[in-house]
Amino acid sequence: YQKNLMVEAAQYIQNVEVYDISGKLINTYMPKNKSMKISESFIYAEGVYLVKIKLENGLIVTKKLIHRLNP
Hints:
By secondary structure, the protein is an all-beta fold. It has strands at about 5-10, 15-20, 25-30, 35-40, 45-55, 60-65.
């Protein structure tokens, strides 16, 4: 949303990895403190991305992200 990646979880987030549709790792975001929310700048091209969210309890959640500059 508005060139930001926002992730919210029920557990503490260990890291968030963003992949392009071909499976190439684009970026890894690490929270500065123990947190259940991450909001980071997302300056990549419009398109479909895969987001892998690793939680502190070992759970890995994968979500699809559709990035549009003008919603």
